[in-house]
Amino acid sequence: MKKILGIFMLIAGIVIAVTASNATFAYFEADREVHIAIVPDDNELIDLVPLQPYAYINDNGMLVIDLGTTNENYWKLVEKNIAVGEGVSPDSVYVFEHMFGISNHLWEQVPICMNVTYSGSGAIKFFVGEYTNETVAAHEFLVTIYPGETVPIGMLIDSEGLDAGEALSGTLNFDAELGECEEEE
User: Fold this and answer.
1) What is the pTM of this model?
2) Where are the beta strands (DSSP E) in the chain?
3) CATH number of the domain located at residue range(s) 41-178 in this protein
4) Is the N or C terminus of the chain more exposed, i.e. has fewer CB atoms within 10 Å?
5) pLDDT at position 24, please?
């Protein structure tokens, strides 16, 4: 009887071992909370910050660049009796340094590579930092932003061939990736 019981125990052990070794994980379910605050562009983990009165954060929390009378800062300056223009002149070139800034406030303390792309009127281009005669303004560029850093972005407007009453417009797109930007060869 002890032999039969021993044999059954051995067989049961083998069956359990074979079953356990062939089993694969099939399913898991859990509910967890996710909390993400939607905040204005100038309060994000990666901020877009107005640095000149031509740039501002609108009621939807988005950065807007407006060199016209629809800019909310325009009327604030007029109310203070400060003379301000209503736009740019035809056949002129304007350079605005430090129009807005892009900052990196990620908790991970890692650099990011920001790809900035402008689509719209070809008369508008952007650049990083100070403007010199060697500065290349472009419709698309990459910039590395280190933790805690704010990189100033400037704007160049070339209104050559445009007439008074015409308007320039477009859209800026910002795409960030983890790490430093690779040098172009």
Assistant:
1) 0.76
2) 46-50, 55-57, 63-65, 93-104, 112-120, 124-128, 140-145, 150-158, 170-178
3) 2.60.40
4) C
5) 66
